[in-house]
Amino acid sequence: MKITPDMFVNEFVIAYIGVVFGAQWLYLRHDQNNRKRIASNRDAQRLPPDILLNHAERLADRRREAQLQSGLLLGTVLISPIVLLVIAHLLGSEGSPESGLAVTFVALMLWILISGTDLSKAFLGGLAFKTVAAFKVPFQIGDRVEIKGIGGKVIALDTFYLTLQTPNDDSISVPTSTLWGDVLTSVNGGSRSSLCVMEFYLSPDVEAGQRQSAEDAIWDAIQASVYYDPTQSMQIYLTQLPHSIKLTAKAYVASTYSEPLFSSDVTRAFLDFASKNKIALAKISHNGDEL
Amino acid sequence: MELAARLTSGWGDDPRDPAAALSLNRIACKGDVIDPIALRKALPNNHTIMGLDRLFRRTVKGFGSIKSFVGALSTISDNVQSCPALICEIDVFAYSFLKGAKNFDLLLPPVLEYTAHSVNFQNTLNDWHSTMTSLENFERVGQSLPPDGPVSARDYLLLRKVIARPSARDELRVLATLLISGPSSPQQIVSDLGLSVPLSKRILASLHRTGIFEHENAIPTEDGSMVYAISSASIPLVVFCVRETLGLDLLSEVREENKL
Asked: What is the ipTM of this complex?
């Protein structure tokens, strides 16, 4: 088959290209209008702009959005040329639009996959990642994650960027399309709670009764903390180190953002207990090593 | 004779009632130990003990009384096989916490009965869940709250203004304490949370202005002193706010278990 420029100068090829790009543009407009409508509704209810909810987006809503956007792209690229071909035959069009449509389809795919611009690659890579993320749930908006060595709270995940808010309140934007090849660590994996590991060091000279009391004190302190998630299991382990006895407490904090406060609550209670009961603690250097 | 828990909502029980757990504990307590014989003699004829949650506070030393009391009850129930079940009424939030933290449901499983109380309680749980869903939709997309619901937009916005601030850590701790430990005196809030007296007064005053507290003197106490308690109408509002800020979902497990 000889490819000539005339092949593309027909209404069906133009319609095909128009449908593919037009659908994406319409989706973006719809999404923008939706967000404006929500912001307007919230404003009418006198709600401030920040959302109080633990997870600002429902996972079900995000799945629906990702499904719609990727379905739209796939549908327009794969199905619309077939529909246009059927219409062409029904209308009895002159010429052979199927050749033009087929070549356009292949050209579109090649352009996108191989020699497309950074923008289109970013768009497709990001959309694909967003879709997979919605269904496989490696994380969701509001989670604490670590990506590319950067830790923070996921503020937004759109087709082009994943936005993280670091503990220092910096906002970091990571191109979504680049996330495919990276290890992604989620602290809480889509749920509200996350595991908190706390370490305490006793002097190696403490007696058996004091060790048990210390363990009981940590246990009680964890359960008494308002940040503790009682629906999850809790463990305390003892380890003997060269110059100390380490107690490692693993308990779940109900909201992952409260982890520093939870750890602080338990540590304060433990230190108060040790001071009151004159239980010797091991000396630890500023970098966490035993002295 | 089996032990069973009947879940209740609100804190309207009178701790001075002879059938109240506080009264029975006072009668049977000899130093740090509960005398099971004295406890057995003092048990009410209808085998229903009220307000078990009043023996519990969510503090480092707050579990001892309820554990001793229930332990003594289980000793009695093992020895007396011919009587009907011994029912312990306990607030749903205290039970939910104790179930997770202390496996309380193994010793005190929820009673399965189709009575007017159980139906009312299930309806209450459903109403709370419905209210919390409405609040979530209100917060997320600005959908109006039902006009005849227990919580109005004004109620929610008033409380939200207090707890949404990043510095509202102690206010949230007070709310969580009032939900799980139940009615609390100002002294209990100070000692349980390690707050200073002036700070606790400021926090309680700012929360009081939101209208979430029960009317003073509405909650009976052993010595007649004034305590702070979440009003029945405000419970779903407070549970929602505590869930979305502290992540504590106090009703998640209870609701499934109590479906009739």
From this structure: 0.85
Could you give phi then psi for residue B23, rounded to 5 degrees?
Answer: -65, -45
pLDDT in tens, A115-129: 445 555 666 666 666
- Picking from A41, A56, A268, the nearest residue to B142 by CB comes out as A41
Instruction: Give residues with Cβ within 8 angstroms of A88, minimum separation 6.
Output: A12, A97, A98
Place of tokens 């209670």: A269
CA pair distance B131, B107, nearest whole angstrom: 32
Residues of A in contact with B143 (CB under 8 A): 41
The pairing of strands B86-91 and B48-49 is parallel
HSE-CB for A200 with a 13 A CA cutoff: 29
- Give A234 to chain B, closest Cα distance, Å: 9
Question: Cα Rg for chain B, rounded, in angstroms?
Answer: 19
B245 to chain A: nearest residue by CA?
A54
Cβ separation A226–B246 shorter than 8 A: yes
Nearest residue of B to residue A255, measured between CA atoms: B247
Q: Which among A38, A52, A232 is the nearest to B142, CB-wise?
A: A38
Compare CB distances from A52 to B139, B144, B153 and report the shortest one's residue.
Answer: B139
The closest of A236, A291, A233, A243 to A266, measured between CA atoms, is A236
Q: Do B246 and A227 touch (CB under 8 A)?
A: yes
Which range, A157-166, A182-191, B231-240, has the best average confidence (pLDDT)? B231-240
B129 shares contact with chain A (CB less than 8 Å): no
CA–CA distance, B171 with B245 (Å, rounded to integer): 11
State how far Cα A251 lies from the chain centre.
23
Tokens 């509405």 -> residue? B218
pTM: 0.83
For residues A4 and B233, give the distance between their C-alpha atoms in angstroms, rounded to a whole number.
75
For B162, name the nearest residue in chain A, comparing CA atoms only.
Answer: A52
B22 contact partners, CB below 8 Å, separation of at least 6: B15, B16, B51, B54, B55, B222
Q: Which parts of A148-243 are beta strand (E)?
A: 150-157, 161-165, 171-175, 184-186, 194-202, 235-241
Q: Please, what sign has the CA dihedral across residues A78, A83, A89, A93?
A: negative
Q: What is the pLDDT of residues A38-59, one digit of tens each?
A: 999 999 999 998 888 876 666 6
Q: What angle do CA A193, A220, B190 make, to 5 degrees?
A: 90
Confidence at residue B260, expressed as pLDDT on a 0 to 100 scale: 40
Q: Which amino acid is at B135?
A: L
Q: Report which of B149, B199, B145 is spatially closest to residue B171, judged by C-alpha positions.
A: B199
Residues contacting residue B151 through CB under 8 Å, at least 6 positions apart: B131, B134, B135, B145, B233, B234, B236, B237
Query: Hey, which residues does B88 pair with through a beta bridge?
Result: B5, B49
Among A48, A230, A268, select the one facing B97 at the smallest CB separation: A230
Q: In 10 A of CB A46, how many CB atoms?
A: 11
